[in-house]
Amino acid sequence: MNAIDPPRLLSVNDVAPLREMLALFGKAFQDRETYVSQQPDDEYLRNLLSSETFIAIAAWSGSAVIGGLAGYMLPKFEQARSEFYIYDLAVDIEHRRRGCATALVETLKKIAAERGAYVIFVQADYGDDAAVALYTKLGVREDVMHFDISPSNGAV
After folding, report:
1. Residue 55 lies in a domain
2. What is the pTM of this model?
């Protein structure tokens, strides 16, 4: 099996690797419809990658993206500080259990600290034992409820 290269922050010129991450997320989460079928155009993705509030980190094995982390820096209002939310994190099934997810989070920790985040938070679904184990190893668990609220009267 090929070695895993150190993860790196994607830049404005990394639209193709971001698309590879989206395909990886679709496969890992068994939700290709959401991640692949209606991807934004390149200009939208370049704008996202140049944003101060969006971060995408990819891990490679050779030229293939085999892991990814995407999330958002959230400026707070109660104090002059920010927190970081990991929105998605996945590793290709053939490369799991080799430290890739931990390396993605460790890379994020450095970037988040440089950008002034005071905490990184993430959600995991009940039953996703691998994610729960990873996040338990890296942080402190809080049991909270999550609610999706539609901005319109339709379903979420």
Report:
1. yes
2. 0.85
User: How far, in Å, CA of 6 to CA of 103, rounded?
Assistant: 7
In a domain, 74, yes or no: yes
Q: In whole angstroms, how large is the CA radius of gyration of the chain?
A: 16
- In angstroms, the CA 149 to CA 139 distance is 27
Distance of CA 12 to the CA centre of its chain: 17
Q: How far separated are the first and last CA of the chain, in Å rounded?
A: 41
d(CA 5, CA 106): 14
- Residue 133: predicted pLDDT: 67
Q: 60 phi and psi, to 5 degrees?
A: -120, 155
Element (H, E) at 64: strand 64-75
Q: Total domain count for the chain? A: 1
The CATH number for 126's domain is 3.40.630.30
